[in-house]
Amino acid sequence: MKKSILILSMALLSLSASAQHDHASGTAEKATSKQMAPMFEDQNMGLAYGAYIQLKEALVASESKSAATAAAALQKSLAAVNNSKSALAEVAKVARATTLDDQRKAFVGLSNEMAALVKGAKLSMGTIYLDYCPMAKGSWLSNDKEIKNPYYGSKMLSCGSVKETIE
Question: Which residue ranges does the record assign to the DUF3347 domain (predicted)?
């Protein structure tokens, strides 16, 4: 059952990553290369990472309600991950936040903790990018090289750069 949920969530993440937004022309176009969502040897870590990506995407889209829902899902999935105490404390801050700005501020600490967990886990497939925005002074994890900034949404969607590749 858990394996089916993991596969389904990874497939959905892959589909959501297949569309890119071109700010210059304002049109959406298909990605030229479809990228598989990363998979972890530890199924619980994979579920937590998938929930984190859903939270990040909600912040990119400036959807506070979706971010709150994703934060709650991340809390549940992190409970089954080894050494996740610090990440659980950080996601609780996101879950308690009442505004989009507060969710984004809390996401900085959560992203740092999730990056540590991801680096300590073993990927069985795929690549993860650690991105950084100097304006927000914050990092985030991504399945794509393309920058989609969760800290500013559409205001500064492409602000930032890939700082590390995790394979």
Answer: 49-125
22 bridge partner residues: 27
Contact 151, 104 (CB under 8 A): yes
162 is a domain residue: no
164 part of a folded domain: no
CB atoms within 10 A of CB 47: 23
Asked which of 32-41, 55-64, 125-134, 147-156 is least confident by mean pLDDT, the reply is 32-41
CA geometry: angle 150, 156, 162, nearest 5 deg: 60
14 token code pair: 């892959």
Q: Tell whether 24 is covered by a domain.
A: no
User: Is 75 among the domain residues?
Assistant: yes
Percentage of residues of the chain with pLDDT beyond 70: 79
pTM of the model: 0.79
Q: How many alpha carbons lie under 13 Å from residue 20 in its C-beta half-sphere? A: 17
Q: Give the DSSP H/E element, type plus range, for residue 124.
A: strand 123-125
Q: What pLDDT, on the 0 to 100 scale, is given for residue 153?
A: 85
Which range marks the domain in which residue 87 is found?
2-13+38-126
CA angle, 45 as apex, 43 and 96 as ends, to 5°?
130
What is the number of structural domains in the chain?
1
* Distance separating alpha carbons of residues 55 and 67, to the nearest angstrom: 5
